[in-house]
Amino acid sequence: SQVFEYSDTKAPEERFYPTYELSDFSWDSINRTLNHTALTAKFRGIPATDPGGTFSNGSVAFRVTAYEDGGRDVPLPSLLHTANSSKVEFVLAGVAPRGNSSRFALEVATVEELEVVQKLRSVRSIDDEYTPTIFEMLSLVAESQNDSSTLSFLQWKATAYGSRTPRHEDSIQCRSENLQAANWTLPVSSIVRAYFGDDVGSTYTVSAVNISFGGEEGGVYQEKRYLSW
How far apart are CA 77 and CA 84, in angstroms? Predict the structure, then answer.
């Protein structure tokens, strides 16, 4: 729903730049990128107004992939999937940082019915031949309040990548904040209202988690101007 940019300095407080509200972006037609054979689509957007020119050579994109059967994804981090799974990849490419030590974060919002309980889980393991240096797997799970059965989930490794053809050495550290109730108002024209109707907030609850990119090696984006998660 939002992309944050902040300056990760040694000062006591981080400096936040004006937020990129994705609801204010202008998005390309999906007809240009929809691939019925590969079951993929790409939503690419830029701010409707860009007075600073930070998006003059860049964009934000969400790449969506569906699957016909189970297996393991080929690109890193090579997550397992089933025929009922889909993948959403966040890509920040060519956007000019507004500071010399800029970091970025993505706010991920979820919408569930009132009787659904959401939990953010973290599992650590060193036994992973596919991403041997990434020890944390996170899952945002929606469970039934009545019987604790899993209704849906969003799963990711605690890593992003600074290359269009990612290798292990292109890894960028990710950090997930706590899951919180979203106390902001969804834009009237948002895709959430289009799908769920006007009952969001009464029949449905909205929660959000922030995913930040970049740790000690956070300068990868400054150098390559590319980040995928």
Answer: 19
Residues pairing with 111 in the sheet: 206
Nearest Cα residue to 23 out of 44, 8, 1, 42: 1
- Report field, pTM of the whole predicted structure over 0.85: yes
Amino acid residing at 55: F
Q: Measured between alpha carbons, how far is 126 from 186 in angstroms, rounded to an integer?
A: 40
CA distances from 148 to 36, 117, 142 (A): 36, 8, 9
CA 89, 92, 96 angle in degrees (round to 5)? 175
As a whole number of Å, the end-to-end CA separation of the chain is: 15
Element spanning 40, H or E: strand 40-47
Closest of 182, 179, 174, 133 to residue 156, by C-alpha: 174
**Whole-angstrom distance, CA of residue 11 vs CA of residue 209:** 25
**19, 22, 28, 34: CA torsion to nearest 10:** 130
Closest CA to 162 of 96, 225, 88: 225
Q: Tens digit of pLDDT for each residue in 47-103?
A: 999 989 999 999 999 999 999 999 999 888 988 899 999 999 999 999 999 988 889
Secondary structure element (H or E) that encloses residue 222, with its range? helix 220-224
Name residue 35's beta-bridge partners: 40
Digit-coded pLDDT (tens) for 154-165: 999 889 999 999
How deeply is 24 buried, as exposed, middle or buried, from its count of CB atoms within 10 A (0-12, 13-18, 19+)?
A: middle
Strand 2-7 versus strand 136-144 pairing type: unpaired
